[in-house]
Amino acid sequence: MAEITKNQGDEKLRQEFNSWASDGRGEEMESHHISIAEQTIAKMDLKPGDCVLDLGCGAGWATRIVAKAVAGKRGEQEGSAVGLDVSDEMIARARAGSKEVENAAFVWGSAAEIPWQNDYFDKVLSIESFYYYPDQEKVLDDVRRVMAPGAKLYILINLYRENHYSLRWVGELKVAVHVRGEQEYKQMLEQHGFHDVKIEHVPDLTPSPDTYSGKWFKSAEELKDFKKIGALLLIATK
Length: 238
What we know:
Number of strands: 9
CATH superfamily: Vaccinia Virus protein VP39
Structural class: alpha/beta
Distance between the termini: 29 Å
CATH class: Alpha Beta
Strand order of the largest sheet: 5-4-1-6-7-9-8
Number of helices: 7
CATH topology: Rossmann fold
Order of helices and strands: HHEHEEEHEEHEHEHE
Oligomer: single chain
């Protein structure tokens, strides 16, 4: 991956995902990732009163799902979901689409400098965004900072070495991405203070067509195999 500074990297991401927002691709991601997202959210064991950060929230569809799951009070704490994204246009769309979800908030900012207080969130979720962050290690440090003691982190990504089909995307993307393997991610999490790091795979359970005529796969069988291999889910505890 080309060497880029954090500020340059954030600006590149902002510009690229602002373009995605203008094209309506933020909302499109819901249909692309809903199966793996819903399975992951189910694993989070969300409860009323939980405070959750959705890192790289895009148009806010997953943040809304989470917000509804944590609505209500536990002790003195009201449940809430906060969506963070480097794209100001995505945040604008997320806010516009979430007006009726009172316990969802959206913040424009960098994943490497999260504009939030220390030791706050009970859970952190990141769906299909982590491989985009220029300085993943800085992101992990800041994510850990805003997590409460004992809080859990859930990173879900489709692009990783063990899913060889996903590597086809790398040359087509307009921004640099990290391509890492499962054990490399596990070691990185452990090196940044996380423990009980687990590696899981989440298959895409959406129906596949009998024939395929798209860009990324040579046949419907390849698409089905990609879905069966599934996304990488990293679960870690502060």
